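Q: Sequence in, structure out?
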Amino acid sequence: MNIKMVRMASYHFKCRDTGMECPYEISARKAEDLIPKIVAHEKSEHGIDEIGDDLKQRINGSIKRRFF
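A: Exactly. Output:
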């Protein structure tokens, strides 16, 4: 009998990985589902009205893929 294990992926973001001193963390099944929530967090908690290229790169670089 062959049993095949399927590993599922999720994506995880930690605000502190962008250089902020912030405990905010969020996970989702798709990376693109994280972006609107991260942007809303940056605006409401850090007062960032516009997400510039530097912050976009830090955010994208901070989204990690996890398997479970």
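Residues 9-67 form one domain.
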